[in-house]
Amino acid sequence: MSTPHSSSNVHDRAQQALADDFLRKAVHFTTDRLRNKKQAVTGEFGNWEAWRERGQQIRQHTIAHLDYYLDQFARHLEAHGAHVHFAATGEEASYIVREIAAAKSAKRAVKSKSMVTEEIHLNHHLEEMGVQVVETDLGEYIIQLAGETPSHIIIPAIHKNREQIRDLFEAESGEQLTTETRDLAAFARRRLRQEYLTADIGITGCNFGIAETGSIALFTNEGNADLVMNMPKTHIVLMGMERVLPTMSDLEVFAHLLPKSATGQNVITYMSIVTGPRRDNEADGAEEMHVIILDNGRSRQLGDPDFQAILHCIRCGACLNVCPVYRQIGGHAYGSVYPGPIGAVLSPLLNDGETYQDLPYASSLCGACYEACPVKIPLHDMLVRERQRLVATGHVKPAEKAAFRAFRQVFGNAGRYQTTIRIARRLQFPLAHDGYIRAKIGPVAGWTTSRDFPALPKRTFRELWPELVRKGNGRG
Amino acid sequence: MKVSLFITCVVDSVFPNVGVSLTRILQECGCDVSFPPQQTCCGQPAFNSGYTDEARDVGMTLLRAFRDSDVVVSPSGSCVGMIHHYYPQLFANDPQLHQAAVDLANKTYEFSQFMVKQLQITDLGARFPHRVTYHPSCHGSRLLGVKDEPMQLLQGVHDIEIVELPYATDCCGFGGTFAVKMGEISGAMVDEKAENVARTDAEVLVGTDMGCLMNIGGRLRRTNRAVRVMHLAELLMEGMQLGKAVNA
Amino acid sequence: MGVDKTTFLERIAKPLGRVPGDPPSPRTAIGVPACWTDRPSTQASRTASFIEKFTGLAGEIEQYASVHELRAGLERVLNDIGSDKIGAWGKRAPWPIDVEDVLEHWHALRWEEQTDRRAFDHIHVGITGCSCAIADTGTIVIASGPQSGRTVHQIPLIHVVILRESQLVQSLGDALQRLVQAHGQGEIAASNHFISGASRSSDIENDQTIGVHGPARVMALMLTDLE
């Protein structure tokens, strides 16, 4: 799998995205729709802040005692006849899936949408061993045919138009199709139904694991997860280790928070609660159920006061829908499986090395993500802390470091500051016209490429102050 | 009431008239206004870029400047937000400085917040017969929680026509160093913001943070849109002068 | 490959400053906030809310005052649909209302312990009961069982649900508590489906379409069995 934006840094990828008019319009339209619906549904629901507060409390408690709840969850699952596996890394998780596939002599697998399987590139690993994997979420199916990756957590094919989708479906089937949504969806239903019927393995993610009962809760609007886990003989669940909730009572909170935050729906169309494989007296449902619990960099955040709360995330995508940066550049520009504000924070935390180091800078720190987050994760603060970490470990450009050293020198002392302003006022003379600077030079080019910069006026406020105070005080 | 001004580096060096307006309004309201000259900047540019040591040294100028102040008022929700939210943690390692940071946070107000919540004034007798749209700054509204106060002050202005800005709460793309470091993304954001301002047909764009207004204004100017960009204090001051002239 | 559970949990407990297996600190905040539990709930309000939410999700609902009328209603519904490819839960499934004569009349394919799932691949209409329905969200709750196969309501384009008004509960939480009880008694179903309206997707240019994988129509026939 490759993405169409495989350039190495966020600048280049953003440039590509900014030049793509369809993408930008589609992202604007989709995020507008989702956030307006969210606003309407939460307004009607009422007490939204109390729900967010409760969501945060539950996630905080769960993650702070994660070993306990995971243990309880795993024991209950096993008591219901499921096999539980633990994987420290993505490679381990993929290996476990491949072993199960090999044991079942599996040729075909169907999948419902799961970000964690994207995170570990599971499809790629399975295809390497000759297992054909078919995505069944309509959006995922579209981008799988296109050989791309999701550009939104909830609406993966946000960047594809109906003509492109028709072409992909026609190329796949040899059938002639119209661009009517109904026809395209009907084609997918027909086509994917055959896949469910012939698949050896069904792979799903896990929205929430319930420790109290050992259950997996899966949320979809299409109903594809139900078919994926019930029709093939073997059901494999991939879950990030943080996805657990203590009780069914807690699930009620998230059954409200998740769909309302994600798509502005009052309720998800299908919430399926699976508690083990089919019982002995049942004629359908998977005969064997495997649950793989994945760490993959998550435990590194535990005990870290700056970042532990990132494990509270429920992957609703609400932060994408309100993010003014995501709005301009879409998902692929982030260059990581998780896009938007959550991706900018999470990707550098889960992955060592320099690949995602520029993501924490792809934010204006406006805080819209925090305001939208149903569990109140302070994403904007985390972005700053990631920048602090990069500075502390020397992962910044020397020029930037020098600039802030100068900033400290100048602004750390009022006298030096005043002197500097006086000098700057003289130096700007050749650049300033009509009170503004337009020259695209040096570090300010980022600014002046798209906007004018005001020139420094003749006098600073502090130079005007003596006159002001003489005239003014004691009037009112 | 004795009030110390925290003028912010952007207002001091680039938009002194905002400080002048702020001073005059507070004086009109009977405040005894002072300007402790040791102040420079809240340190936010460094802090937001991850340079905490640098931010701390710069922030020290404010701790020193306002040590003896009763109340501090500033024409920037962003800089006040910085003091409220980040100073206590920024100075957490030194108990004395930490206390000074907490004290400063407790006595510092953004201009509109101070007017409405402390002075309880929303009608300054200002008159401003123009079509005006308002951009709420992200840090002021989200970080500091100053959401309604600027509009309350605008609604207290006579003859003003207030038009709602589409996507008002969307960030303008300023974000301090973000505007330079991620210039292309920031440029796209401010372009959309400027378009939205233009769509309102407002004569004046008003706000409470000069960082954002400098950004949007810079884009409006680059695209030849004749929209006047004003800080809320400037609009109110001008309105008060007109109000007086009319009533005289 | 993979790690053993003990090692995995130790790696979690250690940075949290916990001894693995230690019980959690007491919880102050469990489940929904007070604003949600402190609501009045009467049979009438539950019924009204269920109908509003269910139809709001494009669900179709018919109410009947007697079992006799409900059976006649089911006949009529099946007549209107006009398909003879009908599947239904088995005779001994937990039907809230006996509709056997109608199912026999239509020669419905019945789900039994020994059913080959493939026999149901081509049904157009699936008829089931439900374990309860939720007023707050317009949700039908169905538990899987030996006579109530999941296939019956997942495969067809039309899903017809038979229920009694007295099966309505107020909240999702009320329905979820039943699962906890069932679990306590060692009887939790392998699969519990919470179905709210028709299968839907907006993945193609944000244009909502129904019946992508699951049923495109969900019809509820409800017996009003309370005053």
From TrEMBL, chain A:
Keywords, alphabetical: 4Fe-4S, Electron transport, Iron, Iron-sulfur, Metal-binding, Repeat, Transport
InterPro entries, per the entry: 4Fe4S_Fe-S-bd, 4Fe4S_Fe_S_CS, FTHF_cligase-like_sf, Helical_ferredxn, LUD_dom, LutB/LldF, LutB_C, NagB/RpiA_transferase-like
A Gene Ontology molecular function term of the record: metal ion binding
Presence of keyword Ligase: no
Top-level taxon of origin: Bacteria
A Gene Ontology biological process term: lactate metabolic process
Gene3D superfamilies per the UniProt record, alphabetical: Alpha-helical ferredoxin (1.10.1060.10), NagB/RpiA/CoA transferase-like (3.40.50.10420)
Stretches assigned to the 4Fe-4S ferredoxin-type domain: 303-334
Protein name (database record): L-lactate dehydrogenase complex protein LldF
Lineage: Bacteria, Bacillati, Bacillota, Bacilli, Bacillales
TrEMBL record, chain B:
Coiled-coil region(s): none
GO molecular function, one term: oxidoreductase activity
Transmembrane segments: none
GO cellular component: cytosol
Database matches in InterPro entries: Cys_rich_dom
Matches recorded under Pfam families: CCG
Domain Cysteine-rich span(s) in chain numbering: 3-83, 132-216
Name the record gives this protein: L-lactate dehydrogenase complex protein LldE
From TrEMBL, chain C:
Residue ranges constituting the LUD domain according to the UniProt record: 81-219
Pfam families named in the record: LUD_dom
PANTHER family in alphabetical order: LACTATE UTILIZATION PROTEIN C
Name of the protein in question: L-lactate dehydrogenase complex protein LldG
Species annotation: Alicyclobacillus sacchari
Lineage: Bacteria, Bacillati, Bacillota, Bacilli, Bacillales
